[in-house]
Each structure stands twice: as structure tokens, then as C-alpha cells.
Design goal:
Number of helices: 3
Helix content: 25-40%
Order of helices and strands: EHHEH
Radius of gyration: 18 Å
């Protein structure tokens, strides 16, 4: 694990995401589209099946995939802990202020 999400092949990742979104298999068109994964384990298994390597940040254990309609506004909120950590960084004496 590490500090950020790492994806070994952006093109293959994009094809996998398009497959979930459309129900058409962009990775292997002669096979059914993969099901939308509901856990990191399912996602990692799908990735391994197509030769894609994903590495999640330390401590990231959950997975949430959301598909919404074009008529829906989506506001993604950051985790409370990330907001509080950023605020703490801004309070340090050497913090950059713009």
C-alpha cells in the first residue's frame, strides 16, 4: 500500500470503468460485461483477471461506486478526517497563505 491510489494502466482502467457504466464489455468485447464491484476484494479480483494492478492508499478499506442519471446533481463530500487534517495544516505557522 502507499499514500495514493495507483493504477498500472490508465487505458485499461478506463475501459473497465466504461464497461461498468454501459453494460458493454470494452475490455473483452466477446465476453459479458463485468458486474459493478461492491467491495475492494471484488474490484481487485476483476482487475487481476484483466492484468490490471491497483494499489489502494494505506487505511483505505471500503469501496463505493455510484452511478447517477444525467438529471442528478452529485456533490461529493470529503471525509471529515480529511477536512480536519487540512485545517490543521493551515493553522501551522509555516503554512502558505494565498
Amino acid at each position: 500500500m502507499g499514500n495514493k491510489l495507483e493504477i498500472s494502466d490508465d487505458i485499461l482502467w478506463g475501459k473497465l470503468v466504461k464497461s461498468w457504466a454501459t453494460g458493454n464489455n470494452y475490455v473483452a468485447p466477446n465476453r459479458p460485461a463485468p458486474a459493478i464491484p461492491r467491495s475492494q476484494e471484488e474490484l481487485l479480483a476483476q482487475a487481476a483477471d484483466i492484468g490490471l494492478t491497483l494499489t489502494f492508499p494505506d487505511g483505505m478499506v471500503g469501496l463505493e461506486i455510484i452511478q447517477y442519471s444525467s438529471q442528478t446533481a452529485v456533490i461529493k463530500l470529503p471525509p471529515k478526517s480529511m477536512v480536519e487534517a487540512a485545517e490543521a495544516e493551515f493553522e501551522k505557522p509555516d503554512a502558505r497563505r494565498i
